[in-house]
From TrEMBL:
Domain spans labelled SpoVT-AbrB: 9-54
SUPFAM superfamilies, per database record: PhoU-like
GO molecular function, a single term: DNA binding
Domain of life: Archaea
Matches recorded under Pfam families: MazE_antitoxin, PhoU
One GO process term, biological-process aspect: intracellular phosphate ion homeostasis
Transmembrane segments: none
Name assigned to this protein: Phosphate uptake regulator
Organism expressing this protein natively: Halolamina salifodinae
Length: 333
């Protein structure tokens, strides 16, 4: 519950204000404790100073296995713990294997200690040295290359290229976890945002856009899987139309991200509006391709229709990034 305090003057020139006792008690603040003030616009955020350099967390993994255990490790990572202790009366060989696999799929994590009843994992990277901007930009590059290669694999019946696209999805997921970890750190501590040199609103926009890029990568992976199911290359006119649809979707994603990263608001608005307008054109193009598929046998038409849908959805995700960029460029209340 919000409380109101009156600002007072002591010593003739020092402004003072009392802090709520309940908040002080809950956060172990007492006489002699140190606090830090972080200015954020017209707000001033007060945070207790902790002497602990690393945040530690513990999780009982008894009964957890497979995907459930893997997600638990990832959740602890994204939540911002630097040292993660996983405990159980007896950690099985299968659990150890899953923990190691989860650790290897996350940036900076390594297993430090293993005993019969616990595994200790630690993040070896300094969060202040990570760049959320670079991580999102890297996601953009990988997702765009995956989408292009997925369409190429479909057009040329290149199974090796399709499998390569599928494997690259792990790289995008790994970067998204990094972005999520950094973003959640800025929610917990204004100091984290200050170390990044970015406002928390911008970090939110980056995280939101990273989610869209992850979905683009997922659809590129889906196209790669579908291309492996096709027994023969689609007709030339269908391949050409899918190539044009991909180019249009790629342009939307590229302009949406350019708008997000634009230094000037006018540039961001111009790029974002252009991307959003093209999304409507892509929907029309997708319907035209669906008409071409009517002449094919139902099984092939269904698979190719799913590919058309994935390309169209990828453009939609680029449009979502453009919408985020527009909101970012709007005047601040």
């Amino acid at each position: 519950m919000a409380e109101t305090r009156k600002v007072q003057v002591t010593g003739g020139s020092t402004f003072t204000v009392s802090i709520p006792k309940d908040w002080a008690t809950d956060n172990d603040v007492e006489a002699g404790s140190r606090v830090v003030f972080n200015p954020e616009g017209d707000s001033l955020i007060l945070t207790p100073v902790s002497d602990e350099e690393r945040t530690e967390g513990s999780l009982d993994v008894a009964g957890l296995a497979g995907e459930e255990l893997r997600r638990a490790v990832m959740t602890m990572y994204v939540s911002g713990f630097d040292v993660i202790t996983l405990t159980a009366d007896r950690i099985t060989t299968g659990q150890r294997r899953t923990i190691r696999e989860a650790t290897q799929s996350l940036v900076g994590l390594e297993v430090l200690e293993e005993t019969g009843d616990r595994v200790v994992v630690r993040d070896l990277l300094d969060s202040s040295e990570l760049s959320i901007h670079n991580a999102v930009d890297r996601m953009r590059l990988i997702a765009a290359s995956m989408l292009a290669d997925a369409v190429e694999a479909l057009s040329t019946a290149d199974a090796d290229l399709a499998h390569d696209v599928i494997q690259r999805d792990d790289d995008v997921d790994r970067l998204y976890m990094v972005v999520s970890r950094i973003f959640r750190a800025t929610l917990r501590s204004p100091t984290a945002a200050e170390e990044l040199g970015l406002p928390r609103e911008t970090c939110f926009d980056y995280h939101s856009s990273a989610r869209q890029l992850e979905r683009v990568a997922d659809h590129a992976t889906k196209i790669a899987h579908l291309s492996l199911e096709l027994e023969e290359t689609p007709p030339a006119e269908v391949v050409e139309s899918l190539g044009e649809l991909h180019e249009a979707a790629d342009a939307v994603i590229d302009d949406g991200m350019a708008a997000l990263f634009a230094a000037e608001n006018d540039d961001a608005i111009r790029l974002a509006n252009g991307a959003r307008e093209r999304v409507q054109e892509i929907d029309s193009n997708a319907r035209e391709i669906d008409e071409l598929l009517r002449d094919l046998d139902p099984a092939r038409a269904q698979l190719l229709g799913l590919i058309v849908d994935s390309l169209s959805r990828s453009a939609d995700y680029g449009g979502n990034v453009a919408e985020t960029a527009l909101q970012n460029a709007a005047p601040t209340p």
